[in-house]
Amino acid sequence: MPSSKDGRALRIAIAIMAAGKGTRLKSKHPKVLHEVGGKPLLAHVIAAAIKVVPAKDVYAIIGHEADRVREAVAHTGVSFVLQKEQRGTGHALMTAREALGPYDVVIVLSGDAPLITSSTIEKLRDFHISRRAAMTLLAARMDNPTGYGRIIRKSAKKEEVQAIVEQNSLAAAQKKIREVNAGFYAFAVAPFFRTIEKLSTNNPHHEFYLTDMAGILSKNKERVVVIETSDAYEVLGGNTRAELVDIDQRIRAVKRQQLMAGGVTIFYPETCVIDSDVEIAADTTIEPFVQILGGTRIGSDCRIRSYSGISNSKIGDGVLVRPGCVIDGARIDKAAVIGPYSHLRPGSEIGEGAHVGNFVETKNIRLGTGSKANHLTYLGDAEIGEGVNVGAGTITCNYDGVNKHKTVIEDGVFIGSDATLVAPVRIGKGAYVGAGSCITDDVPADSLALGRARQVVKQGWAKSKRSAGKTNQ
Ligand code: UD1
Ligand code: CA
Question: Which residues are near ligand 1 (CB < 6 Å)?
Fold first, then answer.
């Protein structure tokens, strides 16, 4: 833990500015809730921050749609500061004065710049402390710096900074400066709050710019220094749709590289959309045009074939997902085979070695070890034992128009094709249900249930109909 001159541990907070509306996105949703890599911008920044300091020392400054933003990230355990009116980045920090006052150092991050890493935050912190600076800013060199604040150093080779100048206040000569303010800072708390009142709204946006603190502190003979990031991508902000898409692509490209480095084969990787929190074990193969989203976990030796979309699901080892499956909120155990074209909805638990085939929809069911439902079937609110064979076209009628009811199919049952099982109903162990049956009553173990009209055969009927037709012509 970094310590101060007198050896006392420094109290360090991280403030994340996340109150802005995001006008440039032209969206009714708050900017920091827009997603990249499958989760909100702010969630990425928080994830990096809480690797550096405990969550309670991270303060998200929220304002626009504050309740929604708070709800989206409350589970992370961070603290919140409310900036009711959004009058600029400097104003955001003014509102956090009470919360941040007790700390020695505050690191300020932008809630719309999600690529920041904990190691860069630590570098910023350590550099700031080692220089005993009042303000340290993170800089990046960009080929196209348009839109960013530019850094005016005291002299080209020195790390001391004279000021930051925002894009729309740049003098013609300053437009050439490619060293930009990344929007991440460290401040010594005492001089920061001593001078923050000097910020003014005397600028084209009539906002309090946090960036003006560089000039103010520097004029006050406080030390303002800059540290350059080695990776300019890390500081990209998602201010426009195009920037969001660019950041999303970068996050996913890195994710795929990490998975491949960990032993996962991804064919035509640029066609696969994999969220940043997904985990996939070694020796699993992902075919082209697959989406794997949310908190999905996939074991080893699986094959996920093309055009399948898997979200928030847990898949064991050696599972085969054939093409065109939609799998959401499901658990699939070892060596099961799914698809092609299966739809596994939330609460589906597919047992070891079980098969779910073409055009089968499942919801809130347990399909036991080795059981099979291979064709054209709907299984909802059902508990299905081991070694069960569910025939083609079987339907569990789980909904009576008001309530949902459960179907229980015990071990070793054989359900003939095109059966309708009207819940609540129980099919006992080892029983048979004849094809085409409508089953409304429980079936005892080891019995045969037939719920259909007996077949009638009228010999010669068709032939006589045809000849009757001819004589009528
Ligand atoms: C800011 C910097 C700019 C820098 C760039 C890097 C200022 C004035 N400019 O510009 O020098 O190059 O970041 O990405 O700071 N926010 C609040 N409350 C407010 C206003 C904004 O919390 O009242 C939040 C926003 O939600 C956002 C962050 O602060 O997450 C940055 O604001 P934004 O408007 O995006 O600043 P930039 O124009 O990108
Ligand atoms: Ca921004």
Answer: 17-20, 31-32, 61, 63, 83, 86-89, 91-92, 110-113, 148-149, 164, 166, 180-183, 209-211, 237, 239
